[in-house]
Amino acid sequence: MAIIVQKFGGTSVANLDCMRKVQTKVEKALADGYKVVVVLSAMAGETNRLIDLAKEWSTAPDPAEMDSLVSTGEQVSVALFSMLLKDAGIKARSILGFQAEITTDKKYGRARILDINADNMKRQLEDHDVLVVAGFQGCDDQRRITTLGRGGSDTSAVALAVAVGADLCEIFTDVDGVYTTDPNIVSRAKKIPKISYDEMLEMSSMGAKVLQIRSVEFAKKYNMTVHVRSTFSDCPGTYVTQEDESMEAVLVSGIAYDKDQARVTLLDVDDRPGVASSLFSPLADAGIIVDMIIQNTSRDGEKTDMTFTVPRADLDQTIKIIDEIKETLGTRQTLYDERVSKVSVIGVGMRSHSGVASRMFQALKAEGINILMISTSEIKVTCLIEEKYTELAVRTLHESFELEKEGMKC
Ligand code: ASP
Ligand code: MG
User: Domains in the chain, ordered, with CATH?
Assistant: First the structure.
């Protein structure tokens, strides 16, 4: 039995008209000979509405009750959509997270899937042509409802695709794929036909918010190809899939940016074993994700400077933590800068081609953009720059790497 998973986001199920478009996508897959597992999000705006309700009712909503509440958005979508399909004579039924036997840990609001027992789903697929599964939700070992974090239906879809052995996982959304950069900044940005899991991870962690990151991690781990495409057109979108040689031939696949950054510099910290650990352990314990870190060589063997970046929303807490430990670190002064952003060039082609970093520095220099920090990985070069130059940097890098020439039109 050939199975396909089709996931539709909130804007795709926002109202009856939209759901009718979704119905045509499902009918097409049926006509192609597939049994279809449809995964739905809540109708657009519904999850936010429920979160706001909880805040009205309670100053500190109980996390488990919160999940019980916000998961209802998806329940509404799957029930309504199943009705539509049944009216059209399609053998379909709705399935909730617990009925799909999606077991998660107990971290309410950001639960992780531990296991999916697909036996029930497979049985149901023998009697039905379409199963309409509520995204975003699972169930812990005490049968309490959990949710997978904002955007979690993407992860539900990929995980279910793996569990039922689907040929493909299609993620239908309101954009028609992954672009070489943000089309709001570069109107000539192109849709990328095929991108590797690793590149996609870098793109989405940098704010190309097309897929929940965890869904890409899942897809990579189990090698499930994901096709990101639009509900509102028939054009092919972007395939997120295993790396192949044709991908390496492309030097750079995309330019990403992240304005949500702050830079912290500690001047004259002691240059002795244990300093980095006394600084970064309390930050990690507070759940603060530190990204770029630079430690200078010490000038006199005693003192050095340490610079790093944190998400801007975590800056206040970072300052508090540093205030508590600065004596131990021996630092003379701490500097903070909130007006910074990261721009990155990303591409698996960097593994086999040299010169990407220098070309990036050259392009930034040509626009007079000063680089504050640099970090590199095997497939990414990132520069921290002043925030006000973000758009200019993205545009000049897109041009310099000739990305408007790649990609596809439709
Ligand atoms: N409805 C949830 C949210 O708005 C999950 C999802 O749409 O993926 O985050
Ligand atoms: Mg989404």
Answer: 3-174 (3.40.1160.10), 255-405 (3.30.2130.10)
